[in-house]
Amino acid sequence: MTEEVIMDGRSLAEALDQIRTSIADRFRNATGLGLIGIRTRGEYLARRLAAALEPALTMRIAVGALDITVHRDDFDALQEQIKVKGSQIDFDPGGRPIVLVDDVLYTGRSVRAAIDAVMALGRPSVIALAVLVDRGYRELPIRADFVGREVATTREQKVRVQLEEVDGVDRVLLVGMPA
C-alpha cells in the first residue's frame, strides 16, 4: 500500500483560495449566501471559505454543518455501523443561495444525500457545489461548480484529506496501489 502526498498545506490553501475567488465572482451580488459543509471535513472547509469570503463580499456568510447519514442510499444496510453526528444549521436555507462544501467528490452519492437533506430544511434559490478534490468516477449525474483540484485515480485508490482542525495537519494523500 502506497501513500503519496498530492497536496501539501500550501497547495491546499491555494486551492481553497481559488475556490473562494470563484464563489466570490459568482455570488458577488447575492444576498443571504450560505455555506453548508458536509460533515466532517467539509464543515471545516466551509468555515475557512466563509471566513475568507466575508471580507471579499463585505457580507456576513451563514455557515452550517450537515450530517447526511440518514439520507444515504445505503443507510438501511449500514445503520448498525453508522454513527449519526447531527447537523448544525442555525439558519433557514430556504430562498437563499447555498454552496455545499465537501472535501472529495467521487461517486456523487454523498452530494445527492446532501441535496436531499438541505431540501428537507427548505428550498434554496440555488444550490452550488464546492469540493477540494474531484477524483472522478461519478455514478450519478453530479458535478462540482467549484473545484480546488482534479486528481486522476484508480477505483482502488483513496483520496484522504487531512485538515488541521481534525488531523493536526493540512494535506491530501493518495492512498493505494499506483495507477
Main sheet strand line-up: 3-2-4-5-6
The CATH level-2 architecture is identified as: 3-Layer(aba) Sandwich
Low-confidence stretches: none
How many helical elements? 5
Structural class: alpha/beta
For the biggest sheet, the summary is:
5 strands, parallel
User: What sequence of helices (H) and strands (E) makes up the elements?
Assistant: EHEHEHEHEEEHE
Mean pLDDT: 92
CATH class equals Alpha Beta
Concise overview:
This protein is α/β, with parallel strands linked by helices and 179 residues long. Helices cover 31% and strands 28% of the residues. It is globular, with a radius of gyration of 16 Å.
Q: What would you note in describing this structure?
A:
The protein has 179 residues and is an alpha/beta fold. The chain has one domain (12-72, 84-152): Rossmann fold (3-Layer(aba) Sandwich), CATH 3.40.50.2020. 31% of the residues lie in helices and 28% in strands. The strands form two sheets. A five-stranded parallel beta sheet has the order 3-2-4-5-6, sandwiched between helices. A three-stranded antiparallel beta sheet has the order 1-8-7. α2 (41-57) links the parallel β2 and β3 (62-66). α1 (9-26) packs across α2. The longest helix is centred in the N-terminal third of the chain and has 18 residues, at 9-26. The two termini are 12 Å apart.
